[in-house]
Design a protein that fits this description.
This protein is α+β, with helices and mostly antiparallel strands. The protein has a single domain, classed as HIT family, subunit A. Helices cover about 30% and strands about 20% of the residues. The protein has four helices and five strands. It has helices spanning about 10, 55-75, 120-125, 130-140; strands at about 15-20, 25-30, 35-40, 80-85, 95-100. The protein has a five-stranded antiparallel beta sheet, with helices on one face.
Amino acid sequence: MSARPDCPLCRDAGGPLVWQDAQWRVIRVDDADFPAFYRVIAQAHVAEFSQLDAAEQRRCMALVAALERTLLEQLSPTKINLAALGNMVPHLHWHVIARFDWDSHFPQAIWAPRQREVIPPAVRRLALPLPALDAAVAQALHKTA
């Protein structure tokens, strides 16, 4: 499956690049409310998980699981949210989001109305700085190869 010029995830990385190989990339979403929000994105344009062959499906889920484990180990969040919606951008990608009981929307979805203001800002409440978190994520993903 080739790139499509009308697809934003084919044209651009989709956020700060944390890790990639020939088939997948992982970016951190630049979101002040949810600083530990990552996406696992197919490099090739594919809309649905079922369009992957069995080996590609296993690889995708291995990356999602490694990312989830890393966020759990590094941040001890209240919950990890996983989603593969693709309604707005029909290019296969998984959202992996560390959620905390203090975050601006908890326990609601990140797209729901804000529940509270977070002071100090969310990024300062994480157990480690974003560059260190990104490095831990990259290291864990590299080990899945």
